[in-house]
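Progress against Task 2.4 (sequence-to-structure conversion) is shown through the following example record, which the project officer requested during the mid-term review.
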Amino acid sequence: MIAIAVHGGAGHWAEDERADAEEGVRAAAAAGWDLMAVGGSALDAVTAAVAALEDDPLFNAGTGAVLNAEGAAELDASVMRGDTLASGGVTCIRRVRNPILVARRVMESTDCVLLAGEHALAFAREQGFGDFDPVTPRRLARWAAAKAKQQGDALVPGTVGAVALDGDGRLAAATSTGGRELKRPGRVGDSPIPGAGNYASARAAVSATGWGEFMMRTATAKAIATRIENGESPASAAQAVLEEMAARFAARIGVICLDAQGEIGIVHGTEGMPHAWRSSRDGGVLARFSA
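Structure tokens generated for the chain above:
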């Protein structure tokens, strides 16, 4: 059994962006699937899927990420493998093309879990990741409009992510984001923190999108994974945790999750969340904009 699910961020999507967003997550899921189909690992699959979304300027991650109060793209990402609980992440990193690749290198080449800011960037340069400006004209225009109002769009889709199960039964999760529009420089969200927005164990993998401050307080990804490990289906586990968060915080959250049998759960409490998935039971990559 192999399986993969990908999301492109929960929130408000403009009508003229929805078809492209759906195609973007479909292509990302296919990239991960193709690797596992020839023996690649779940870790390879989620990394490739998220890197594809980071390279698509439509999504709020990598190229095309939203800008902070200074007009800079400050990026967060993390990756986690379920068989070993190894995890790596970067936060508040600037001027890299694919923060998810830097996060994986943190996991595989250091004894750290999370590197931040200028030190994360120094590490990236040491590892051969070149200088890259992820700021696009589209995001600059939107930033200027938001800055004039002194109010970012809280509904801008916030994160991309992937979860996968490979042929050897290993699970992995990866998540990447530009965070919230007009955020305070140095703000850290849930995406680079294991258990908050990204988590994988031997029996569950979870990637979340939404208001990170709430997910950090409730360890959202870990809460969902624990329910799955205790026998709930991925969809039921995600729904239960999202309902708890909605009741407590009125938080807008979206989740993709996966168990060790290849069952996929996709739940969101927002207007839309482009997502795509495929498992050994499916004939091809399936994609939708909303539920």
